[in-house]
Amino acid sequence: MKPATLLALVSFLSAGAQTTNPHSSQADREAGARIFRSHCGSCHGSRGTGGLGPDLTSGTYFHGSSDADLFRNISEGIPGTAMPGVFFEGTQVWQIVAFVRSLSGPGAPSSIPGDASRGERQFRQQGCLGCHLVRGEGGTKGPDLTVIGSQRSAAYLRESILDPNKSVSPEFWVAKIISQGGTSHSGFVMNQDTYAVQILDFSRGLLTLPRTDFKDFGIDRSSIMPAYNGKLSDEEVNDIVKYLLSLKRQTERSQ
Amino acid sequence: MSRILLLALLVGAAPRATAQVTYERLLRADSEPGNWLTYSGSYRSWRYSALDQINRGNAEGLKVAWVHQMPTNHRIEATPIVVDGVMYVTEPPSNVFALDAATGRPYWHYKRSLPSKINVCCDAVNRGVAVLGDRVFLGTVDAHLVALSAKTGAVLWDVPVADSRLGYSVTSAPLIVKDMVITGISGGEYGIRGFLDAYDAATGKRRWRFNTIPGPGEKGHETWGGTDAWKQGGGPTWVTGSYDPELNLIIWGVGNPSPDWNADVRPGDNLYSDSAIALDADTGALKWHFQFVPHDGNDWDAVQVPVLVDGEWQGKARKLIYWAHRGGFYYVLDRSTGEFLLGRPFARQTWAKGLDARGRPERLPNSMPTEEGVYVWPGVQGATNWYSPSYSPLTGYFYLTVWENKGYYLKGEPKYTPGNRYVGSVPDIDVPDDPGFGAIRALNPKTGEKVWEYKTQTKPWSGVLTTAGHVLFGANGGWLSRDREEMEAYFFALDSDTGRELWRINLGGTMAANPITYMASGRQMVTMAAGGAIFTFSLR
Question: What global pTM score does this model have?
């Protein structure tokens, strides 16, 4: 073992001895918020909603969701990613943990009402798989939901079902293009650069279209998903949310 | 063309044993365009080459000559140095490769062991080495200066420049002046007290230090409002400057005051942050300064490369500096005295009503960060940044990479704790709904007026190079990452007279470096870093 690895392990073990946050008062959260704004906001956004780094408001985190995981990842950084470590004492790191926890609000996934297996049946009945993918089954006109339970909060999922336009990720914005020759294209914007727009054309598949050939070009930022507000009962929505929250990363599922 | 062939023969025939880079060769660096001997190509920092084998008539035939992949996860910001057939290029964080300049095959690789925690604001990067005699000089992110054998990469000396645990690091390429290695320092986001240092190239012993933040009793100290803020006042020097041998002046840019976005704790102009400084090369004594942004709260470092041109100014021969600053104004200064001669916006800016007769900006209200946040043009990365501009004596134009965008400036708590970020909140760098755009622009340096522009969707992080072939090389790549795959990564050649595109290629990775050109095996080569690799192009 390299000395650096050993050192990292020792510091991890000493920090990891504490597994729940000893600094989680309102004052600690506020102190954590101030530190976060100056030290974390440049990548995670000043309100934790993401940017260069991931959205931290879901309550679940890709590299581990326990207090000890958060402490380690903030303190030591995450190898192989752009996440750096910090030079704070333990207290300040715990204060950041307290603030990050507060971003996802009260209500941990386990306290969400609903029945996951009923939710899965409802999900299939409503035809969600026509657009969404779950573990290899389904369509490509919406986000892949295979590990959505590790990525998004219950509140976010509920909002997305009831009012999909509230938050539309840019990869699901729809380009509408008319070429010089009069051909119409409609599809998700996959990428754009100085010279071309790349789309997933809804009828023709993946296309790279040169801007010099555009007669008309616009981007619609609204969602193509129907809103289910008023179409599903509260119970049905709860069940689907519960089901979606059960779609976790393999390592989390096996824990 | 025959001149170039002769040159190529000379370069090709030069025996390796005599490949000593004397100070005299550095003084005349632009007279041997087959090599690239210093960061900006010469002490005047034109990033212009007299090579014309690749020209606007044939640039469309450029092909990849070789690629050198480097095992790094960090962004490559390096300008390579090429000496008599050998390329010395840094691999971030603080490693060096010596490559065969014709094939890209490595001769040696210096790998530095680093502490597990490194304090670098914006990735552990390096912008290149300097060469003198048979030595290669490297600044490191753990704030050391190292001399390596140009033949083997063996360490000849290794001296600490500052304490990296307090946020000091070296990311810039050193500059050789006489028998000295001049190095800047990084750490403006960690509350350092900045400086510019000179070291004896033979021994590594420090000759002088100029503190960019004056202490008690020193001139300029009064611009810190009688507070202790100067102790962590920032003023880093993280981009290689220029040198005027006639005036014996080292001219260098100084970065932001600390904390970046909360200026309340440091009342006053905060000299010499955001300034051009001119130092006596032998003593490090300050001869003059020009401050672009007094009492900065927007992080608009003056870390641009000073472009030194001797020219006529209003009917009189003058030694000039052309300087496009991060805040969005283009300046002409007299480099003997620092006198302000001209200032004019080269991009949209909403923070200054204008510049007064001495070049001092007239600040507009609501242009400093607030608790609630405020939109200001340019954004925090500026209307241009550290990447190199170019001056072509052929066209007489000044070329630069420009960002047209706004930022959202937030003010937060300015609390200093040693070794940690000390920035006083952070602004939103990119406003997703209104990201703006980038451009390569040619300016008339006598007026600051735009001559032409080549617009880019992605705001570029790369500098420009011009050549005697009437070609400008530039790039529109940004920082690619998992969440930013939309950024493009084109390297392109433009007609330097008109901005017309001649050639382009997608290099598919982060681009945040400066192109160079040189000769190898009779061919003109053009080199640019992208992703984790060094790409070199030629006509066949």
Answer: 0.85
